[in-house]
Amino acid sequence: MKVAEDQVVEEDTGFQDDEESFFQDIDLLQKHGINMADIKKMKLVGICTVKGIQMTTRKALCNIKGLSEAKVEKIKEAAGKMLNVGFQTAFEYSAKRKQVFNITTGSQEFDKLLGGGIESMAITEAFGEFRTGKTQLSHTFCVTAQLPGEDGYSGGKVIFIDTENTFRPDRLKDIADRFNVDHGAVLDNVLYARAYTSEHQMELLDFVAAKFHEEGGVFKLLIIDSIMALFRVDFSGRGELAERQQKLAQMLSRLQKISEEYNVAVFVTNQMTADPGAGMSFQADPKKPIGGHILAHASTTRISLRKGRAEMRIAKIFDRYPRVPICLRMRPRSPSALEELVTPKSEEEETRVSTVPCLRQFKVI
């Protein structure tokens, strides 16, 4: 198969220049009297931009070895002079939102379901039981994020954090064949890391921030598969639930800030748990995604994946702003064609659609 490698991560100078100017390098603080030694200390913990300082509390900055309260105040003051820390009009903010891009799922109808694909400056969560297609979607995004898209999107590199040892480069090759792109180019543009504990997972985010800063505008997507697996192992029982949720909130806050700071999309998968109280309320499905309200509030878009007949999978927008109650059916592991969407027009119809099989099928890969 003869393939042109320039199909992957197409070079678009103008577009990348806009991305690079999206953030201000922390080195610019030297002009405001901050010495380079203190700047390097902040870079070591993943604070690489001026906006990153604004997103970090004084308490967290004081915890950095070598930074006193006086130094922190001086750093905060310098960052405040370089940024607009006050209010802005909705018109001004809308101009900033124009830089948001969408990464395709590889299916036109699935993109319609998501409003164009997964968007940058946001966290998209996909949850479901085992073998519902979560990891499959993650692998697909590793390839589609590199392809040129609409509205000047030129494609970019991907960082994949694997917490369940499910990442398979050979799977990327199969997906690359579908899009007729070079295997080597696709694999070179995916940066992979295996996380072994929840603490390690958090530490990797410092590396992610440093990498996004080092290659500004090059990386477009961060994938974590899955976000909660290691938290379930490291924290057990109700006695450690409060601590687990606090650590989870800190990680999700970090992800939100990274997505806004560097204009990247964040895609995370999540596991399910049985709800012991569901039987008392006569719920049709007693299972629910783990992570509680903290994860639910942090995710901009939540995709529910569940099994249908045989290899059929049903995808539904569980939560999104703006709200789009649409569901569809897919085959994540075998060829088929998407033919129809079902859009509920009322709460009663939405409940029916969520429990009755949708009419058609589509292929994610």
From TrEMBL:
Keywords annotated in UniProt: ATP-binding, Cell cycle, DNA-binding, Meiosis, Nucleotide-binding, Nucleus
Cited Gene3D superfamilies: 5' to 3' exonuclease, C-terminal subdomain, P-loop containing nucleotide triphosphate hydrolases
Record GO terms (molecular function): ATP binding; ATP-dependent DNA damage sensor activity; DNA strand exchange activity; double-stranded DNA binding; single-stranded DNA binding
Key word Amino-acid biosynthesis present: no
InterPro entries for this protein: AAA+_ATPase, Dmc1, DNA_recomb/repair_RecA-like, DNA_repair_Rad51/TF_NusA_a-hlx, P-loop_NTPase, Rad51_C, RecA_ATP-bd, RecA_monomer-monomer_interface
One GO cellular component, as annotated: condensed nuclear chromosome
GO biological process: chromosome organization involved in meiotic cell cycle; DNA recombinase assembly; DNA strand invasion; female gamete generation; mitotic recombination; reciprocal meiotic recombination; spermatogenesis
RecA family profile domain ranges (all copies): 99-272, 279-325
Location relative to the cell: Nucleus
SMART domains found in the cross-reference section: AAA
Superkingdom, taxonomy of origin: Eukaryota
Keyword Transport carried by entry: no
A Pfam family this chain is assigned to: Rad51
Quaternary organization: Double stacked ring-shaped homooctamer. Interacts with BRCA2. Interacts with the MND1-PSMC3IP heterodimer. Interacts with RAD51AP1; the interaction is direct and stimulates DMC1-mediated homologous recombination.
Record family assignment: Belongs to the RecA family. DMC1 subfamily.
Reported function: Participates in meiotic recombination, specifically in homologous strand assimilation, which is required for the resolution of meiotic double-strand breaks.
Protein name: Meiotic recombination protein DMC1/LIM15 homolog
Organism of this sequence: Cottoperca gobio (Frogmouth)
Name of the encoding gene: dmc1
